[in-house]
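Q: Could you fold this chain for me?
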Amino acid sequence: MEVVASPTSAPVHRTGSTVLTLVGLDGSPLADREVSVEQRSHAFGFGNIGFDFVERGVGGAAPWLRLFNQATLPFYWGTFEPQRGRTRAERLHDTAAWLTEHGVRVKGHPLVWHTVQPDWLMEVGGDDEVERLLRSHVREVVARFSDVIPLWDAINETVIMPVFANGDNAITPLAAARGRQYLIRLAFEEARAANPDATLVINDFDLSPEYERVIEEALDGGVRIDAIGLQTHMHQGYRGEDEILSIVDRFARFGLPLQLTETTFVSGHLMPPEIEDLNDYQVESWPTTPEGEARQADDLERHYRSLFGHPAVESITYWGFSDAGAWLGAPSGLVRADGSPKPSYGVLERLIRGDWWTAPTRVRTDEAGRFRVEGVAGSYAVAPAHRGPAEAEPGAGFEVRRGEESAAIVALAV
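A: Sure. Below is the predicted structure, expressed as structure tokens.
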């Protein structure tokens, strides 16, 4: 039996094996036929934010789509519903639907957070009413988007939530009065009730043992957490493989998938190390530089290689595609403000579509119409060699699942 082989540079735990049996439309085996096999997407989540798609539309999305199969869209309550009863649901739904149609898994961020809250929520009259409105908000948003958003950051930054002191909001007093665990349970239970099939994530920038305790208490209390989100904004420089992987190992002990939800590297000067709250760093200009771009590309490659190599990690989301409009005004994008790609874009393209991508291959079926694909986990297409997978009909797709040996029958019109 002939074999389509995975790239030797891909970690073994990111690959799988599938035996394909090809049959004609009449069900008979397509023996001794040359076919073309092509990987279409990764099972691993390579993500970026899709905020610009909401604000500016989807024109020019090809470079983004070339790399990413997961998009995070903004559901900050204060921008989602700045005036009570008037939401941006239609625009967000249209964007999520477009991304879904283009093979991108969409994540909503976040359902519950104490920052970027609507001003009107401060005026509704006490914690009981805030809680009622919060519960309703979570239920309505998750239900409204259940057809296009399967993944949510259910609650964001719970460690600091009850003691947050950098701006008044209605959620911090509620968390202080009810407790972190109460808010965690609220977020997960209301979201789960609205969409039982959703994947719900707890997310935080505080990666200290306190976050571990918060997660442990929630799990011990019966909260069903589907994945753990770890933020790694590194405006002050790369923390290095040893530190990052030690953090990943600590949170892997819970046996839940880990999502690196917010990763950032700058391609200009580094933020001074004494800055504790990244939001406090304000400069008039923060330009990208050739030296900074080289450093960003090197740090990004080391970070992605180490995380893709860790079996507990299921996704990495880079926080920003372009320097234009980047968080904190930092030169943290993968492309410059004029849209030209930085070296970091090339690094990700080489990894995602090269080192960790099963190359298009021609293979011949055996007497039973079979061949084996030993490839990077993800979606594939097969077609008669004279046509090529790009022209394959929808029924010619199949999956290679991570760490599994599987079999599939695919019918082809020849």
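A (continued): Residues 3-42+359-411 form a domain with the Immunoglobulin-like fold (CATH 2.60.40.10).
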